[in-house]
Each structure stands twice: as structure tokens, then as C-alpha cells.
Amino acid sequence: MGEMTSEGSQLSAGFDLSQFYQVFFEEAGENLDRMEQLLLELDIEAADDEELNAIFRCAHSIKGGAATFGFADVAELTHQMETLLDKLRRHELQPTPSMVDVLLASGDALKAQLSRHQTGAGSEVDTTELLFNIRAMVAGEAPPAPVAAAPVVTPAPTPAPAEPVATAPMAANGERCLELTVGPLPDPSVADNLVDLFKEIVDLGKIEALDGGRAEGGVRRFKVTTRSSESELLDLFTFHVSKEHVSFKPMQAETAVVAPPPAAEDPGYGFFENSPGAPSTQAATPAPAKPAAPKPASRAEARTGGGAALDAATIRVAVEKVDQLINLVGELVITQAMLAQNSRGLDPVVHQQMLAGLTDLDRNTRDLQEAVMSIRMIPMSTVFSRFPRMLRDLAGKLGKKVELVTHGEATELDKGLVEKITDPLTHLVRNSCDHGIELPADRLAAGKPETGTITLSASHQGGSIVIEVRDDGRGLNREKLLKKARERGIHAPDTLTDAEVWNLIFEPGFSTADEVTDVSGRGVGMDVVKKNIASLNGTVEIDSAEGYGMRVSVRLPLTLAIMDGMSVGVGEECYILPLSSVVESFQVQPGMIKTVGTSGRVVEVRSEYMPVIELEQVFHVPRFDFEHVSSIMVVVEAEGGRVALMVDELLGQQQVVVKNLEANYRKVPDVSGATIMGDGRVALILDVGSLVRRSRH
User: Fold this and answer.
1) Which residue has the higher pLDDT, 689 or 583?
2) How many helices (H) and strands (E) does the chain have?
3) For the whole model, what pTM was predicted?
4) Which of 168, 175, 304, 561 measures 20 to 30 Å from 527, CA to CA?
């Protein structure tokens, strides 16, 4: 698992830490995401103490874990970040945009380093320039500075320190004596791992046994001399013993610190790169006051939801286990439907108790199904949180000023859909920034504020989720689109409606960019966006007003696993129509169906003509009563169009478990999946979008 320092290797020899690797990498990833979000939201002109403390804690948590596991490169970079962040939160330095840029770049480097350690592959990440820039900023210099002027903020990362740590002068720097009580433990010898910990991580301090190595009632007692706070020690100790078994109290002989640290230097950072301890330098205050430093971060804690409470209220479960649970619930739903169908012929008087039990089973199955499905639902904030950083970098590259506004971050969507919708949304946001938002000078000339706004919103509408990407930029130019389409040989008469003209941008290879850049212009984006969304049974709609902006609406089902459907009968076959696509159904009257040309047929519904599709012919359904004529029509809509489907009967409406037909058999035209009905028959789920496209051709 990547390269380990000698200290980390020796520590692992005494205690197997590999079982905690995955937890560390997940928590480090969460801390990096949180740190990036806080940095992007930071008000440079009036930096908030709570926010600076929260950013510092993120870096410190990563450093502590990295040092414990022996990832020296990660510990070194986060330690230097801590140095800069500590000076910022002490108001010894004023935050600047270049500091935010360097910290964001450091976060990217940390992600690359962690990925390398996690996978064991990839080349070493070069952080020389980042470290130099951070040290220059800590010294109050503007990077890049001459190499010779790099200040000595911390010792260079070496396997062993060149000078002793626990010496008398360090007592003036905040060293304290604590009585550590560990237990009661089933196996008191586990506490010896803490002694080994202090031996391996030299800068942590000193530890001495107060009980002569003999446990009393499973409890061990130690004297600890350290500059780290109790919370920092506790974070490290929990790799060996649980928090509940650890307690601290000041030693009776402990005395207050006599001399404050010098104001010009930052000796609180005079520890080695692999140390998980945080800085505890103080300005002319007694040392015991230091552990209370994180407490002022009440507002930041409220924003993060409270780290300790979150750990206690959540549990990490592998996605495979959740998927297995959903599949089992799906089978239970099918079994319950079979029981319900087979019980219809029972006498309710004779089998009253059984039928009551089946009714309870129906209700409980539906409740269980909804509860299990909610496990896979995650908030849209996980998608939206990716865009502030991306927009910041892209706007800077394009020389534009852009503000991102988000609404409905708490709206939940199936995890599988969230993963697949991220790339299409990323392209739409980049498109808005590149094509939509004008340069600041152009916006001012048009009477707009120089900062453009891109709005991301998510909301539930019926059984779907609607995600919108809006901008207040230049909008689409109808004439330009028509001209580009004709240049590409696309049939584009002037009679096209605005909606049809806007949809031209979904044509393969179509682009309105005047020149090809590394951002856009190759015409390989919007058609892929539409195909990806269509593969999720979703739709895309565009609305635009030239000079005012553009809106792209993406409509998706809440989940791909279970859906509400209407079952219809054609001959002896049963088909499922997604209920979200069904508009209405009606009885066919003589003369309603008109023939167009040689084979086309349309039906008039309230002065609107729509194509007629006979499912019997589409799927070649065998029929033995040759004189029977389908007499019911179901109107469905998708992709901005409507068609009327001719069926024999409406069988009912129910929730169905969607099975992937392509994975188990092969792709079938006009079919999006299959399900198992209550009587055990397999019913095909129709792809309404494909049927609408069929009618157009």
C-alpha cells in the first residue's frame, strides 16, 4: 500500500494497521472535500475564525492519520499547510487569493498522493514547488521568491530528529504532564501499544508507567509528558483502544508555564514531519488553555453537522450489500404479488384471517420497499459540490467572472443515477460558462452586472427529479444555429419552431464555437449528454431567450430499480408502460383514426393529431382470434412528442421491479427492461422515447 516510512513500518510490526487503511482513505477524502468547499466559500476580505479553524482541523486530521500509517509525503505536505493555516487563524497573516490557490493546489496534490498509496500504483507526486510557496507565504513573502530566501519554518522531513524533543526548554513551549488512565480492558497488555506509539513517534512526548506495569482491575495508569492536546492524543490512541477506555487528568505536580513563546517565531511547529500532534503554541497564556482552542468553532461545527455526532449516527456499508438487499426486497415484492393474485379466488368468509394477513403483508412489503430504496438515495449536494471549484478554475482561465447559485441540494436521487448524471451535468455547466456567460466588458456594455450567474437547481416533480442548469448569459441565437445547421447539411427550414431550433445543438458534431479550444468547440458534447440522459430513461429540454440566458432542464426517474407502471394487454401478452409517461387512455370510436399517405395513421384528440402505433404489429404479437380489433388507446409522451398506443385492455397499475434485459439477454428495440408479474409471467417494459422516435420516422 504505497511506500511506508521506517517509523510506520516498525509501528505496523507491533500492531496491524492495514485493517484501518480503507477507513483512513475514506475519511481523508471527506476531509479534503470539506476543506475545498470551505476554501471556496472563504471571504478573503473578512475571514471567519470558525471557518479558518474548520479548515485547519481538516488538514490536521489528515496529517495525524498519515503520520500514524507512515505516509510521510502526505504528513509533510499537510504539516506545512497547518503552519500556514495556523498563522491565518491567529491573524498573524492576512488571507490572500494566492494563499487560497496554493491551499487548493495542495488539496489536489494530497488527493494524488492518497490515491497513489491506496492503489499502490503511479509515480511519486512532486510537491517541491508547493512546499516552497507555502514556506514563502508563512514568512510573509509573495511566491515565487528566491530559493535562498525560503524561511526555516519546520525541520526538513527526516526519519530521525537531529535534536532531542523532550528537553527542559520545551516545557516553556507548552509541555504538560498528564495522568493517563486506560481501562478497564479485557487484556491490559493492549495498553503497552501506547508505550510503543510514543517510542516510534518521537515528537509525541514521553510516557512512563505509574503502576509498575501491573494492571489493577484491568486498568493501567501512565504519566504522559506532551505538547499535544488531549483530543489529539485521543484520536491517535483510538487505533489501539476505544475512546471510552481512555481518560486524562492533570498531574498534581504539574505547574503552569513560566515563559510565553517568543512572538517573532512559531516554535509550536518545531516538531517532526511525521508527528500526528497539532501545534500548541500560545501567546502569553497558560498551557492548559490550549485544548479549548477548537471550541470557538461553533458556527463551523453547525455547518459540518458536528463531527462526533455524525460518527455516532452513521455506519459505512459496502454498496454491494445495499444492492443485494434491494434485489432481495425486489424478489419479496414479486412473491407478495404472486400471493395476492393467487388469493383472489379465495372465499373471504372462510379465509378471512389469511386474507387479512396478506393485506398486512402487502402494506409491510411496500413500507419495507420504500425504506430500503431510501438507503440508496443520496442528496444532490454530492453532485453540486463538485462545481464551485471547477467553475472557479474555468472562469479564471476564460477571464470571466461567474457566481454559482444552487437550490435544492437536499433533493435526493438514486446513487446509481447520481454517478451517471455527474458527467452530463459537468458538460452543461462548462457549456454555460464557456458559451453562455459573456466577458465582463461585454456584460457591462449590455447593461448587465459584470459577474454572470449560473444557477443549479433540483426538485421533485411527481415521480421524477428535475435538474435545471440556468445562466444569465447571451442565450442561443436562432439565426446562427440555423446557419450552422445548413453548413453541416442538416435540413433546417425557417419554419422550425424555437424548441426545434434549440434541439439542433444535440446533433452529433454540432458546435456554435467559432474556434476549437481545450474547453469546447469540437461538437462532441451535447449529443453525448442527450444519449447518456436518455439511457437513464430521462429527457432534456432547452429554453432560451437571446440576450437574457438559457435554461436546460433534465428530467430523471428517482430510481432505476423500482417504478410505477401501467400494465396493458395485447393478445396473450402483457406490457408495462412507465406511469410517468402515460397521459390518458380512451375508447376508440369509429372514424377517429385517419390514414395519412399509404401506411401512416393518426388519431384526433381534442383538435390535436398524433401518430398511432399498434403494439401488435411492433412486437409481432401472435393472435388467434383474427377478427379482433384493438379498441383502446393509451396516449404516452416523451422527448417532447406524443403517440397513441393501440392495446386490447388495461390490466392495472402497480409498482414493478425493473430487471435489466440487456445484461441478462440482449438489447431489444423499443424495450427498456423487463419485470416479473404476480402470476410469474415476464412482462416487457416499453421504452416510450424509442416509440416516439419510431413515429417520427
Assistant:
1) 583
2) 23, 22
3) 0.52
4) 561
